[in-house]
Structure formats: C-alpha cells, structure tokens
Design a protein that fits this description.
10-stranded mixed sheet; two-stranded antiparallel sheet; 245 residues
C-alpha cells in the first residue's frame, strides 16, 4: 500500500512467525484504531495479542464509518456510542431490529422512551445539533447501496453506513469512509472488495476466512485485524458475538 507524507508506523503481527508486516498509517488515522482515552474513544475489540483497541468514532470532525457484515456489529457500535454519551439516530427499513437500543436506553421521567435514541424511517429529518458534550451518531441502515440522507457536515457528527454485503454500487460510499469495518465475506464479495480497495491476494483470502468474532479495520493505508469483545450486559441485550443477524 502506498503512503502519503506525515505518516506513522503501525505494526501488524497477524502471522505466527514472529515477523511483523509493516504498514504506514497516516498520523490522523492512528486515533481511529488504537487505545485512546479521548472523549470519543469507544472500545471495539482486542488485537491479535489481546491488547484493547478503541475507535475514535466521535470526534471534532465530520466522520463516516462503513460497516460491512451482520447487524450484531452495527448494534454493538451504537450501544457503545450511547455508553459514552452520544445521541443515536437510526434510519432504517427494519425498525423492529433496532428496538433493543431504545430498551437499553430506558424511559424518561414521563415514562416514554428516552430521547437519547431515535428510530426513524429512511427519509431526511432534522437531526439533533451535535457538540462535544453531546456527540451524534447517525446509523444509516438502508441496504447495500445507501443514499446520502444524513451526510456528516459538522464536528462531533458521525454517520455509520450498515452494508449487509458488498455491492458494486457501494464503491463510492466505501471509498468516502474514514474507516471501514469488514466481517467475513464470501469469495465473490471479497473479490469485489479487492477491486474497490486494491487489496492483494493474501488480504482477500483473509477476508474470506475470518471467524464470526473477527473484523478487519480498513482505512487509508490501514489494515488491522481484531476480535470483537462483548460484555455480559451487551450479551444480555444482543446475545453472543456472531457474523449474521
């Protein structure tokens, strides 16, 4: 992979030989998949050596994240955004699948669902105004070829696009993302991912052999395999880690 100026090094120790494949990562991306104590740092999983990894999904810049895989991972990201104080707006064609977030948020003083989580249809609506004290996560669950209903335009707003599978028309959305999280892909979809991101054969093969709890974090000059980690409280809400829904 090529690199731009002002980049830093990130080590990938996925092979078992003790030799590390080295990738060059832009300095701006290091906080997107590394241990962090900042306001928007959300625990995502663990590295191959068991080290905790977080993503700076909520940050003082408009941010796009693409999730390719099952609904489990998308709902877990939303739950963890709630845990660090974010507003969560979900635009979806399957609202019943997201009701677990409202149940997790509980009810307000009036007995109605807490406004921290809003489940919406796939149509433009006025969004809460994001801020450092109230960041906003917008989840766009609109199938494999999402429309730009809620593009991030302001700091502390992050739009997550949930793609159940790779589609040729999703290339523009995927390439515009600041971070992509990929679960296991069938061979044909992995080959499509290879064309979109110009992945070499070993990376394509890895995408087809990931376990149910494994994810690859992909960014500009970034390739980081990791494992999803689920707490007991999350398991009570979402069930065990899985690739499907």
């Amino acid at each position: 992979m090529t690199t731009g100026g002002g980049s830093s090094r990130l080590m990938d120790t996925q092979n078992g030989t003790g030799l590390s494949q080295e990738y060059l990562v832009d300095a701006a991306m290091l906080d997107a998949i590394s241990p962090s104590g900042d306001r928007g740092g959300m625990m995502l999983g663990s590295g191959l050596q068991g080290e905790p990894l977080t993503i700076s999904a909520l940050r003082p810049a408009p941010t796009r994240i693409v999730l390719v895989g099952g609904l489990y991972m998308a709902r877990q990201v939303a739950l963890r955004a709630m845990a660090v104080g974010a507003w969560v707006v979900v635009a979806t064609g399957r609202p019943a699948a997201w009701q677990v977030l409202q149940k997790a948020a509980g009810n307000g003083p009036d007995g109605r669902p807490a406004p921290l989580v809003q489940i919406r249809r796939l149509s433009p609506v006025e969004l809460p105004r994001p801020s450092e004290d109230g960041p906003l996560l917008v989840v766009h669950d609109g199938g494999p070829t999402p429309q730009e209903l809620f593009p991030p335009r302001s700091p502390w707003q992050t739009t997550v696009y949930v793609l159940p599978y790779m589609h040729p028309q999703a290339g523009a959305t995927a390439n515009a993302a600041d971070l992509v999280l990929l679960q296991r892909l069938p061979v044909g979809q992995a080959q499509l991912a290879a064309r979109i991101w110009r992945l070499p054969p070993p990376m394509v093969h890895q995408l087809t052999t990931l376990a149910d709890d494994q994810v690859v974090a992909l960014g500009r000059n970034l390739w980081k395999p990791l494992r999803l980690v689920t707490t007991q409280k999350e398991q009570a809400i979402l069930g065990p880690v899985r690739r499907g829904d």
